[in-house]
Design brief:
Length: 530
């Protein structure tokens, strides 16, 4: 009985920990915009309340002054309430803002040299000549059913565009499968701008909102059994004859099925779909840009994609390393659900850690950021879900970098309500703020990190940091190494280089050289805000 009670207490504690981010907004940005209640006229008749009224008026005046004097008030430091001494964002004044802006072009904030590379999506004459027959075709249609999270969905949509071109078919607006984890039933038009998508690809494929009536009841070709890393020729052999007969191909489970090493024109089409055609819907863009403006209101900011959610630890086969209590929870969950483990099931946790397959912990992220010269007063936008372990997981990072924010505590009351229970749209807001940041850093690999790496390269070589985990781990474990030596080594591992795409890499994360040309011009390519 005592053991069962202990287990129950542990479960309650774990649930409370994962609710950390949802509870931290009590003293957040929202509170600065709450309207004081109207003062009742009857209070004037009660003399013994006069002192209370005077105090209330003074307090209201002080709060109003605090708001009015800020041209772009941003979030209160709800997260830093964990610290023994609360740090206030307000009160730095123009001097601090100027100092941040002056330092934005040097030190940690210095942007990489693009070496003259610029976006270059000029298609060959043969490709352009074939376009007319592709656009005129009215017999063949590709329907895509996408699954997974937002950035996994993006990858599948991009590949479907290329597959439709390979088969000379029209692409029907993709069907978004309900996310079984989050219960998100958003449709394509809820997340992306369909008309812009259609218009941008008008010279490449025909995009339609639905099947024509005469195809609705016809037999569809099952497109769920596709080879991994399949070539364009494979898709033509597999489907083209059937499509000429039946007309409609229903694609499912195409994530990582199309080869990453395609002919030049198809690589360019991939980039065009990923970087230009897939634009978020207007309401998402509007709020995402507002959140960006609030983060940028006092100078440059860093966006950190923190991968410390409960499911990440389970799927990677790694342990959070907080305490034995939290490690046991992850170990037991993975033992009960071995199907959740993604790849290399024969490797133990320590082997995974040494191979650089585990997400960085809060302590490791903090050490990495300090070694790279991130100023302590850097304002950091946290993208991602709630860290497993809550306060315990976040405290080492917050002690070194207290100015941390997320979409919940920089949004005004009601701004996020329209997107409640829409995990993909909330992820899109994180994506926008992270893309627009001065520096982006990811703590672990993933679709979002790769997508942002590609976009930030394509639209201006904006600085992004990909932790070299496998090379760093031995230095993290060396407890006798002087901090100065550690910092030097870490900086050397992360020096800025323009990397060309390897055949195994996706062009949407490494657009050089397939989608970017090298010229003699050294002009800086400005970032594009979508």
């Amino acid at each position: 009985m005592e053991k069962n009670a202990t287990v129950g207490q542990k479960k309650k504690k774990a649930v409370a920990g994962t609710k950390y981010f949802s509870n931290i907004t009590d003293n957040s940005f929202q509170n600065y915009f709450q309207i004081s209640p109207k003062k009742s006229g009857r209070n004037r008749l009660l003399k013994f309340r006069s002192l209370f009224l005077v105090a209330l008026l003074i307090l209201t005046a002080l709060i109003s002054f605090n708001i009015v004097t800020q041209q772009n008030p941003t979030c209160g430091l709800a997260i830093s309430n964990l610290l023994p001494e609360k740090t206030k964002f307000f009160g730095n004044g123009g001097v601090e803002t100027t100092r941040r802006e002056e330092g934005a072009k040097e030190g940690f904030w210095k942007q990489p040299n693009g070496m003259g590379y610029r976006p270059c999506l000029e298609f060959s004459e043969d490709y352009r000549n074939e376009t007319e027959s592709v656009i005129k075709d009215r017999r063949k249609f590709v329907i895509l059913v996408v699954n997974g999270g937002l950035n996994q969905q993006r990858n599948q949509i991009v590949d479907a565009v290329v597959i439709a071109r390979i088969l000379g078919a029209a692409l029907v607006v993709p069907i978004m499968k309900v996310n079984v984890v989050w219960g998100d039933d958003s449709e394509f038009t809820d997340i992306f701008d369909f008309e812009y998508f259609k218009k941008t690809l008008a010279d490449d494929i025909r995009v339609v909102a639905s099947l024509p009536w005469f195809h609705v009841t016809t037999n569809h070709i099952d497109g769920s059994q596709n080879e991994f890393n399949a070539s364009p020729e494979w898709y033509r052999r597999k489907y083209l004859r059937k499509m000429n007969r039946f007309g409609v191909l229903l694609l499912r489970s195409i994530d990582s099925r199309l080869s990453k090493d395609l002919p030049p024109d198809l690589q360019k089409l991939r980039c065009k779909a990923a970087f230009q055609a897939l634009r978020f819907a207007a309401p998402i863009m509007e709020l995402g840009n507002k959140l960006t403006e609030r983060m940028r209101s006092e100078g440059p900011y860093l966006a950190l994609h923190l991968r410390m959610e409960r499911d990440v630890w389970v799927r990677t086969g790694c342990l959070p390393g907080l305490t034995e209590y939290y490690d046991d929870i992850i170990y037991d969950e993975r033992k009960n659900r071995p199907d959740l483990l993604s790849g290399r099931t024969n490797m133990e946790y320590h082997q995974r850690k040494l191979a650089g397959l585990c997400p960085l912990t809060s302590v490791e992220i903090s050490r990495l950021m300090k070694a790279l010269g991130v100023p302590r007063n850097t304002r950091i936008y946290l993208a991602g879900g709630e860290p497993f372990g809550g306060e315990v997981a976040m405290k080492p990072l917050l002690q070194e970098f207290p100015y941390m924010y997320n979409k919940e505590n920089i949004s005004l009351p009601g701004e996020l309500e329209q997107f409640a229970d829409r995990a993909s749209i909330l992820a899109a807001l994180d994506f926008i703020v992270a893309e627009n940041s001065d520096v982006f850093m990811q703590s672990h690999g993933g679709n979002m990190g790769r997508a942002l790496q590609g976009r930030r390269t394509f639209f201006g070589h904006k600085k992004h940091i990909v932790p070299q985990k496998r090379q760093m781990i031995s230095y993290f474990l060396n407890e006798t190494m002087p901090e100065s030596e550690f910092n030097t080594i870490i900086r050397d591992l992360h020096h800025d280089l323009i990397s060309h795409r390897a055949p195994s890499k996706d062009v949407t994360s490494h657009p050089i050289p397939d989608c970017m040309c090298n010229t003699t011009s050294t002009a800086t390519i400005g970032s594009v805000f979508f």
